[in-house]
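2024-03-11 09:14:02 INFO worker-7 job=invfold-0412 stage=load source=structure_tokens
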């Protein structure tokens, strides 16, 4: 149990100091206990704790939307605020279907996700998602959804550094689905540019560009789910910039407020925004939450972005990522290590499962790391790391050394 946090560290209820190797849960990018965020939240709570987002507006939400739009590439310049990544995903999927309808293309209702995708836990997100345990308990989910094949290929790409060489052709799977369903029925494709939850899977070289081309060719919207990659995780504000691929929408959350106050967002291209504004009289999009653009979340978000800017955190992973890459790949050859993957300031070790006990070894490594003062995560037998972007070289060494000891102990 954790009871306090500051900088790169948590403290347990017993008072043990733990290096945070996972930025909380992929979100505390600027490190813990940032006073500027606490002060901004306090000030906003004292000034105006809440304002209705329907019919009414307030300045700070526009200010924050402008900041986010400035960070995003190209004409991704309008923002719809939500309270989580799951809500951002469901919002983006709804925008995609409504956008086509407004343009007189109402048959475009299908949504395409990808195997091993994680898009939160709403019905939209689990429907397009591709992680079996998040789906199998919850019935038939949304109709009209299909999935691209995933891109993990340990046989061909094991121990790749950054983007693997093989697999760009897997983007052509979208052509297969177009052959099956016809493009006129497909509204959007949603993918994580780098798979997070299912175990840090960078896209094969050229894959995202090819997927973009196929989407454009068939009039299908491309949604990049950047809930994890957004806000500097791979060395650019967004992965769209890192891979130089322009999506039609970006979903984000987590690092948007440094994890301090729940918030998510959908960033849309101008053409999508204009379609809603031009074609609809009155309410443009029949969608919104009580807490959309919550003033306190916006205050936390603005303070967070100011820290990112001042400390140049959104590009810092270009440097620190190199140390993490070196360190993590030095684990090759340890018992049961079958793959190591990395990009920016995130990486994972994939372990061979114990016979008949899938996930047991990964969880044991996670526990040993925690006993030895480092927080990582276990997702089955995959152990991902994703530390706050403020991490220094010595702390990366501590993270890697502790992981090495724990993998040996769990042999
Ligand atoms: N999309 C992506 C790509 C995510 O990673 C969500 C949507 C949903 O966000 P919310 O805020 O609704 O949780 C996520 C969330 C893990 C882990 O261990 C990852 C997430 C959540 C919980 C655990 O990898 N990502």
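2024-03-11 09:14:09 INFO worker-7 stage=emit residues=411
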């Amino acid at each position: 149990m954790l009871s306090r946090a500051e900088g790169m560290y948590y403290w347990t209820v017993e008072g043990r100091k733990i290096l945070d190797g996972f930025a909380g849960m992929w979100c505390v990018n600027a490190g813990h206990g940032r006073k500027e965020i606490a002060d901004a939240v306090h000030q906003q709570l004292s000034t105006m704790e809440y304002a209705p987002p329907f019919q009414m507006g307030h300045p700070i939400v526009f200010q924050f939307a402008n900041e986010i739009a400035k960070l995003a590439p190209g004409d991704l310049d309008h923002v719809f605020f939500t309270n989580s990544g799951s809500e951002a995903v469901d919002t983006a999927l709804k925008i995609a279907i409504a956008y086509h309808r407004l343009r007189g293309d109402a048959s475009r209702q299908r949504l395409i996700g990808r195997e091993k995708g994680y898009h939160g836990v709403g019905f939209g997100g689990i429907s397009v998602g591709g992680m079996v345990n998040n789906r199998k308990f919850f019935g038939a989910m949304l109709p009209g959804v299909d999935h691209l094949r995933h891109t993990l290929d340990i046989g061909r790409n094991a121990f790749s550094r950054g983007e693997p060489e093989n697999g760009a052709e897997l983007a052509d799977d979208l052509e297969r689905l177009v052959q099956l369903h016809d493009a006129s029925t497909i509204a959007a494709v949603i993918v994580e540019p780098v798979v997070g939850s299912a175990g840090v899977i960078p896209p094969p070289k050229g894959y995202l560009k090819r997927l973009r081309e196929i989407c454009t060719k068939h009039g299908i919207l491309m949604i990049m789910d950047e809930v994890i990659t957004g806000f500097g995780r791979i060395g650019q504000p967004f992965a769209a910039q890192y891979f130089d691929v322009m999506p039609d929408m970006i979903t984000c959350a987590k690092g948007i407020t440094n994890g301090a106050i729940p918030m998510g967002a959908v960033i849309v291209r101008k053409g999508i925004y204009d379609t809603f504004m031009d074609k609809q009289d009155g309410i443009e999009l029949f969608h919104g939450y009580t807490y959309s653009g919550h003033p306190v979340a916006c205050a936390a978000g603005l303070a967070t972005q100011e820290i990112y800017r001042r400390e140049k955190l959104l590009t810092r992973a270009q440097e620190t990522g190199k140390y993490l890459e070196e360190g993590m790949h030095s684990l090759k050859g340890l018992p049961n290590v079958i793959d190591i993957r990395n990009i920016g300031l995130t990486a994972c070790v994939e372990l061979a499962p114990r016979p008949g006990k899938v996930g047991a070894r990964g969880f044991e490594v996670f526990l040993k790391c925690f006993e030895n003062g480092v927080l990582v995560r276990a997702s089955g037998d995959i152990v991902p790391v994703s530390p706050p972007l403020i991490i220094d070289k010595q702390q990366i060494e501590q993270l890697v050394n502790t992981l090495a000891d724990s993998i040996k102990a769990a042999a």
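2024-03-11 09:14:09 INFO worker-7 stage=report msg="The chain has a mean pLDDT of 98."
2024-03-11 09:14:10 INFO worker-7 job finished
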